[in-house]
Amino acid sequence: MNIILLSGGSGKRLWPLSNDVRSKQFIKFFEGEEGEAESMLQRVYRQIQKAAPNSTVTVATSKSQTSIIRSQLGEQVGISVEPCRRDTFPAIALATSYLHDVREVKEEEAVIVCPIDPYVEDSYFETLEQLGQQAAKGEANLVLMGIEPTYPSEKYGYIIPQDKGEISSVQTFKEKPDTETAKKYIARGALWNGGVFAYKLKYVLEKAHELIEFKDYADLYDKYESLDKISFDYAVAEHEPKIQVVRYRGAWKDLGTWNTLTDTMDKSAVGDALLDETCENVHVINELDIPVLCMGLKDVVVSAGPDGILVSDKAQSSFMKPYVDKLDRPIRYAEKSWGSFRILDAEENSLTIKVTLNPGEKMNYHSHERRDEVWSIISGEGKVIVDDMEQTVTAGDVITMQAGCRHTVIARTVLKILEVQLGKEISVHDKQKFEWK
Amino acid sequence: MNIILLSGGSGKRLWPLSNDVRSKQFIKFFEGEEGEAESMLQRVYRQIQKAAPNSTVTVATSKSQTSIIRSQLGEQVGISVEPCRRDTFPAIALATSYLHDVREVKEEEAVIVCPIDPYVEDSYFETLEQLGQQAAKGEANLVLMGIEPTYPSEKYGYIIPQDKGEISSVQTFKEKPDTETAKKYIARGALWNGGVFAYKLKYVLEKAHELIEFKDYADLYDKYESLDKISFDYAVAEHEPKIQVVRYRGAWKDLGTWNTLTDTMDKSAVGDALLDETCENVHVINELDIPVLCMGLKDVVVSAGPDGILVSDKAQSSFMKPYVDKLDRPIRYAEKSWGSFRILDAEENSLTIKVTLNPGEKMNYHSHERRDEVWSIISGEGKVIVDDMEQTVTAGDVITMQAGCRHTVIARTVLKILEVQLGKEISVHDKQKFEWK
């Protein structure tokens, strides 16, 4: 089975834990099978590996997310990198072309596309497999998943099937309705359209060639920026007469707000937190290294991270975006492919950062014009290169670097460094990169 | 006018901003006259200086508080240091003896004792002055302030005056009653006993010599630890027939809990915070350098500091002590006479601390057996001494110190240092002090 996971952009609806460089799918809200913290991405990937161990998974995503995906899933997963955002049709065309040309998936094989962020039961992945099998049969060009509605939601599009069978032809699609209209659709047997569908690889490849002039994956990648923004529904699905739908009856939740997200949490708190007995329906997600104490609260979410602290009535949290826009502070924490960084202290002429490098990872060989730096190795082992001189380092070592000197560090184990930047006009733009051997 | 301010012990009822080394009177909740943040201590001191510019103020306090009092009030204020806590009678006897022997206050002069933490109007200080004048007259040996009750409180003791005059003899004292009894007291014209009273210096000095065998202040200080714990009421007031009471009609609030404290705040937020329009009766005190966003809350206090984050229903916050006891984390922030420190990061074999030294202040000359240290000067100017070698330092300088090496730093201006401690078993007890010249 070939699965393409669409990894959406960043957003502020889960501030302070999501920000411009950190999307909700990477935040570790959940508990994995061994009790470890787990992100949506890790959760869905673990569920796929369990339900369909032989499937290949490709994440279609923007450049800015590749590092954190590698960091959370490792090297096995395929990544189809979109050079820029161009809506779902170009993204799916690019990922399909990547599967064909890079992964050498055959044209007759089924490909299944699904978003990365719904919260689902394991049976969802059985339905995914069914979708793939149905697409491979070739009765229809597109096979959609239809989610049995639990309430007349205004948030989803609807699929009206021909009949009530497990697998049915699609009669028609409906845009997001109001509640009353949604009730009528449901009375007619309508299903939610969760944006999950399967096709034979060659079907989308042909559609792509029909709509875009390109030779192969590399060529499509190169001209990606020139493509029009167009959704897959608009470009393909709406014009396709041969579409089937497969029913899914399990839980399916969109975890887009703190309200819906905390509903799915296994425990009332993630991180260091204490709730008194009078708290009702209170959830805490605390990424800071200081404790959160909650007393006498009801229907409240508390979320604390390096970028800020949210304390909100759960329903009210859906309206947070304009307030978060108002805050607009510099980002203090980011996870990257090579590890992570966290700003511990910022003064006018200094910046103190804790840097964690994953094993084997290194910084670019670089220098700064207007600042000195001090590295204190606080744990792990690695190699530091300063002005072409190599030196192995371990916990307790201190390296001082004057402005202008070239430097890098290569981690042998997980390597934690306390970096103090000292100088006037400290800026991320003050960085000159060099080749190292 | 000689005023003794009794500065009480530390407590956890205003966690996370009060802790074992930081009492509520030092936290900057208020706004001073120029809009700057102001603590209870600073507020009461400013009010005294305004109402009675010629008064001498002495703070009676434990050793652990002297540094922060100096830091907040400067050098003008007198401090009577209790070597250990021994309840109010020994504390007042010691402070009175200090006024007599160290400050050379005459025996006929009036001394006024009041707690440091009530929130009062400026007219309170006029009543204080009246208390002092009345005590100086010598009609009574003790002159108390009687606060006109605003409700039948169970939290205070009551004073029953002989009559309804501005100044009256005291008929009797009553212990903290239940609400019904309090109502009866109030019907009889009872006043709250706020622990504010005045006397001629020689009166308490004589009582002290009656009850404790000591020569002078220095002698009393030396034997302080051997004294019994006894309250001033029990040792003196209950046996004194000649007591008068002066009425105070203004606001008088005990700021012992978040609930009462936030009631007196001028603004809904201190520090970096944003409240949406749907918040009602919400107060935020944020000492962290990241923003707090509150949405849709009612009757909630949010308090964030280096030791933790409290989110509580205001009424419920009165019951926080057992929960704070449960948390029991190491202290991460403290203000001292020489400046302040804040722990930025703690790992198994490292500790990163931001140290701020006030101008002219210095550390002890010291060494550590089991850790190296790195100082990065992030702002200010000073002098560093390492193994008897002096060196002036300024922003951008980096000093590395191996275990065993003796070191200190002397601040010329406010000096901020980023200290990274590196070693196994890092402990505050690993410190050897030496003389420097």
Which ranges of chain A are low-confidence, i.e. pLDDT below 50, for 5 or more consecutive residues? none
User: Biggest sheet of chain A: strands side by side, in what order?
Assistant: 20-21-22-29-24-27
Q: Which class do the helix and strand fractions of chain A yield?
A: alpha+beta
- The oligomeric state of the chains shown is homodimer
Largest interface: A-B, 62 and 62 residues
Share of helix among residues of chain A? Answer: 10-25%
Can you walk through the features of this model?
The first copy, chain A, is of the alpha+beta class and 437 residues long. Helix content of chain A is 22%, strand content 38%. The first copy, chain A, is built from ten helices and 30 strands. In chain A, strands 20-21-22-29-24-27 form a six-stranded antiparallel β-sheet. Chain A has a five-stranded mixed beta barrel with strand order 8-11-9-10-12. In chain A, a hairpin with a 2-residue loop joins β20 and β21. In chain A, α3 packs across α6. The longest helix of chain A has 15 residues. The two termini of chain A are 42 Å apart. The mean pLDDT of chain A is 91. β17 of chain A pairs parallel with β19 of chain B, so a sheet runs across the interface.
